Amino acid sequence: MLKKTSKIVLSAALLVGFVGVAQAEMTREEYAVKFRRSSFTAMTWYYGAMSRMAKGEMPYDKALFARNAEYVAFLSKLPKDGFIPGSDGGDTKAKPEVWSKADKFKEANDRMESEAAKLAELAKGGNLDALKEQMGKLQKTCKGCHEDFKKKAD
Ligand code: HEC
Questions:
Q1: What is the DSSP letter of 91?
Q2: Closest residue CA from atom 11 of ligand 1
Q3: By three-state DSSP, how is residue 145 classified?
Q4: Which of 72, 66, 77, 64 has the alpha carbon at shortest distance from 46?
Q5: Nearest CA to ligand 1 atom 6
Q6: How far apart are CA 119 and CA 138, in angstroms?
Q7: How far apart are CA 92 and CA 31, in angstroms?
Q8: Is the CB of 33 under 6 A from ligand 1?
Q9: β-sheet bridge partners, residue 150
Q10: Distances (CA, A) of 25 to 17, 84, 141
Q11: How far apart are CA 40 and CA 154, in angstroms?
Q12: Which atom of ligand 1 is nearest to the CA of 47?
């Protein structure tokens, strides 16, 4: 029993140590930028396969589509946590409006999360036409927010 406890304490200490090292080279704000950009990248990765299935570039695989839609629904909840105060500078394309129009930014996040959740729900049914329509709705939330809150590629 004692052995087990000390093992848990040790791994917790290692984990804290590891995170500490990973963040040591960056400020918390820089890490937040990296985190939100990475979560958008991960979300887009899973969205990509669904997109290829929708376009017929890849055979429709109901289980894979449904799994990816679940991942996208989950991942869509992550980026907002990375827009911490003070993380408006550095290696970012976020516009200052993310912070100055925080309510509007939150609404845009909510829209994405709710359309992504609907897509995951629909994906269980396996009607590709319905899925394509819902993907269109989800994409609108990406586009809308990028127009208002993301600087154009340079
Ligand atoms: C609530 C606003 C919002 C929504 C909704 C949104 N984005 Fe973004 N997205 C941003 C902002 C802001 C950035 C810039 C982040 C940065 O550079 O710090 C960004 C960046 C990105 C990036 C670039 C990541 C990188 O490498 O830097 C990708 C890819 C992306 N978004 C994909 C999507 C997709 C796909 C959707 C819809 C499923 C989506 N986004 C929805 C605001 C949003």
A1: S
A2: 150
A3: helix
A4: 72
A5: 142
A6: 8
A7: 11
A8: yes
A9: 94
A10: 13, 18, 34
A11: 18
A12: 35
Residue 106 near ligand 1, beta carbon < 6 Å: no
Q: What is the pLDDT of residues 33-62, one digit of tens each?
A: 999 999 999 999 999 999 999 999 999 999
Distance CA 27, CA 24 (A): 7
Q: What angle do CA 20, 24, 25 make, to 5 degrees?
A: 150
Q: Which of 140, 22, 27, 40 is nearest to 93 (CA)?
A: 40
Does ligand 1 lie within 6 Å of residue 101's CB atom?
no
Out of 29, 71, 141, 150, give the residue to mutate to test ligand 1, the one with the largest number of ligand atoms within 8 Å of its CB.
150
The model carries a pTM of 0.88
pLDDT in tens, 111-149: 999 999 999 999 999 999 999 999 999 999 999 999 999
**Whether the CB of 37 sits within 6 Å of ligand 1:** yes
Q: Provide the residue ranges of all domains of the chain, joining segments of one domain with +.
A: 28-149
28-149 belongs to which CATH class? mainly alpha
